[in-house]
Amino acid sequence: MKSQDIVILLKLVSLEHEERQGLLYPKTDHDGPFSVRGLESSLGISKTEVNASIKRSVSSGLATKVHDGGRAKPNRRNLCNFIVHGLKFVFPATPGAMTRGVPTAFAAPPLKNLLISAGEYIYVWPFAKGKNMGQSVEPLFKSVPEAAVKDACLYEYLALVDAIRLGNQRETGLAVERISERLLKK
What we know:
Blueprint: H1 3-20, H2 36-43, H3 47-60, E1 63-65, E2 72-74, H4 76-85, H5 87-90, E3 98-104, E4 123-126, E5 132-136, H6 144-150, H7 152-166, H8 169-184
Parallel strand pairs: 4-5
Antiparallel strand pairs: 1-2, 3-4, 3-5
């Protein structure tokens, strides 16, 4: 398992959400948003890595292959269980130096203003085009800040994941509640 596997699975969940909302009309050719090329384009992860990631996710039970076009479909229950119970141990996050970037964890939209922070600094993914200053947090994959800026739904998922990776009991509990609602509702 690699950290980009979680990013790719959450992107697939985001695409499913857009598809259900009628905001996405997937193409049946090889360049649709669910294709390896489509994922490469939207996430900045090479086709080879996307393909290997999907294979790892299928073999670990975090995804299945759907027969219509062979696209990968996240197993939302297993993914949620892994994020809630295992992610912070497998891919821990440690706040770093002050930098400019994209807000994450408790400073990002799904949790912003819900918790009163004990500190004055927010957490950010380092990103040259970022408008906020805060303590750096290494994202699950280097292209996460740019991918998150392009996709608001993916951004929420990844920020909640970081809240779980970084938070204390109260913060983690709120993030778990929010991500469970989003992942487990159909």
